[in-house]
């Protein structure tokens, strides 16, 4: 079965999620290879996710939220819980418009 190309809107969402994952991971687990090992995926897989070349599946999102101690809402929607130390630290470090305080 041939793959269909994602729409520009979906690609933009994928790239935004990739930036959030990369920002949080860089701050909380600076070594990408170590984070990939904790996730149980190859380092190249995590690299592709962080570059926006590959969409993370739901299991990777859940496991990343556990490893980074951030919510899935933070990773997927950019919603920052003011009571979450890691979400606030990532927000402060990045200062990107895609994050929204809850």
Structure description:
The chain has 102 residues and is mainly α. It has a single domain (8-101), classed as 434 Repressor (Amino-terminal Domain) (Orthogonal Bundle). Helices cover 64% and strands 4% of the residues. It has helices at residues 8-28, 32-39, 43-51, 58-68, 72-77, 85-94; strands at residues 79-80, 100-101. It has a two-stranded parallel ribbon. β1 (79-80), α6 (85-94) and β2 (100-101) form a beta-alpha-beta unit. α1 packs across α6 and α2 packs across α3 (43-51). The termini are far apart. The model has no long low-confidence stretch (mean pLDDT 89).
Briefly, what is this?
The chain is mainly alpha-helical and 102 residues long. The chain is 64% helix and 4% strand.
Topology, element by element:
Layout: H1 8-28, H2 32-39, H3 43-51, H4 58-68, H5 72-77, E1 79-80, H6 85-94, E2 100-101
Parallel strand pairs: 1-2
What is CATH's topology name? 434 Repressor (Amino-terminal Domain)
Largest sheet: number of strands, sense, barrel closure: 2 strands, parallel
Beta-strand percent range: under 5%
C-alpha termini separation: 41 Å
Strand segment count: 2
Which features does this protein show?
102 residues, two-stranded parallel ribbon, 434 Repressor (Amino-terminal Domain), mainly alpha, single chain
């Amino acid at each position: 079965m041939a793959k269909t190309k994602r729409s520009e809107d979906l690609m933009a969402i994928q790239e935004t999620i990739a930036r959030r994952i990369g920002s949080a991971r860089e701050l909380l687990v600076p070594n990408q290879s170590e984070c990939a090992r904790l996730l149980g995926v190859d380092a190249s897989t995590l690299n592709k996710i962080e570059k926006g070349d590959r969409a993370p599946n739901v299991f990777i999102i859940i496991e990343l939220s556990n490893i980074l101690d951030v919510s899935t809402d933070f990773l997927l929607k950019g919603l920052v819980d003011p009571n979450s130390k890691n979400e606030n630290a990532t927000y402060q470090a990045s200062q990107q418009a895609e994050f929204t305080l809850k």
